[in-house]
Design goal:
With about 150 residues, the protein is of the alpha/beta class. It contains five helices and six strands; from the N terminus they run E-H-E-E-H-E-H-E-E-H-H. Strands 3-2-1-4-5-6 form a six-stranded mixed sheet, sandwiched between helices.
Length: about 150
């Protein structure tokens, strides 16, 4: 029996690397689930599965966490969603190419909570560093490496 190909799940509402994700998916002929809480413009492509889940951002997270499976890839900057995907044994990449795994998720959750607290108290302003061209390149490389590693395992 042939092993199921990995699928890619994108937390798509604010994802800046949808195009890069699609490039890697096309190279490997992988299905990409673009999940958002509103309709977003996407290219017509038979590999794209659009999923609109109105009713708030948590609905997007819930849909991805419910459907993702072992060996799939999640693209998200949402740390709690990343944790849920890791529990399902999926690989998780942030839009900057940062890989989250069982070893790094605890620190990522703690840092997220600390930053939220500092923003609430006014000690931290803004949302961090702007997304740069090098982030796109690093993401593209990290996604390609993750997909190749998954395919080698199969």
């Amino acid at each position: 029996m042939e092993k199921r190909k990995p699928e890619i799940y994108v937390d798509a509402d604010a994802c800046p690397v949808k195009g890069e994700t699609l490039r890697v998916a096309e190279r490997h002929r992988l299905i990409v689930h673009m999940v958002s809480n509103r309709w977003i413009h996407l290219p017509e492509n038979p590999l794209i599965r659009r999923q609109v889940t109105p009713g708030g951002l948590d609905r997007v997270d819930d849909w991805i966490a419910e459907h993702i499976a072992e060996g799939d890839v999640a693209i998200t900057a949402d740390i709690p969603l990343a944790s849920r995907c890791l529990e399902k044994k999926a690989r998780v990449l942030g839009p900057t190419g940062r890989t989250l795994d069982a070893e790094s998720i605890g620190m990522a959750l703690a840092l997220r909570d600390l930053n939220a607290y500092l923003r609430e108290t006014g000690e931290l302003k803004g949302s961090g560093v702007a997304f740069a061209k090098k982030d796109r390149s690093r993401f593209l490389s990290a996604l390609e490496e993750a997909v190749q590693a998954i395919l080698r395992q199969g």
